[in-house]
Design a protein that fits this description.
29% helix; Translation Initiation Factor IF3; 4 strands; 2 helices; globular; alpha+beta
Length: 79
């Protein structure tokens, strides 16, 4: 499970639909310094595709993504 992954900031976007989880993640990443890790929890199944695309477009590294009981957890490393 995700307990082994360390992160610097966590945001909860459960209940929010596209594009809100990405927009919240973008805002949170802006507060971090390069190399720090953001944990995002979401319930939107579309967020899987969205975060993969977001990572490619922005250069922030998607370290891990997992689904657990209808929740999606992402770990993004700021570029």
């Amino acid at each position: 499970m995700a307990s082994d992954m360390t992160f610097d900031k966590e945001i909860d976007t459960r209940g929010l639909n596209c594009p809100l989880p990405i927009l919240r993640a973008k805002k949170a990443l802006a507060d971090l310094t390069s190399g720090q890790v953001l944990k995002v929890t979401a319930t939107d199944p579309g967020s899987v595709r969205d975060f993969a695309a977001f990572s490619k477009q922005t250069g922030h590294q998607l370290l891990d993504s997992r689904e657990d009981n209808q929740e999606f957890v992402y770990f993004l490393k700021k570029k």
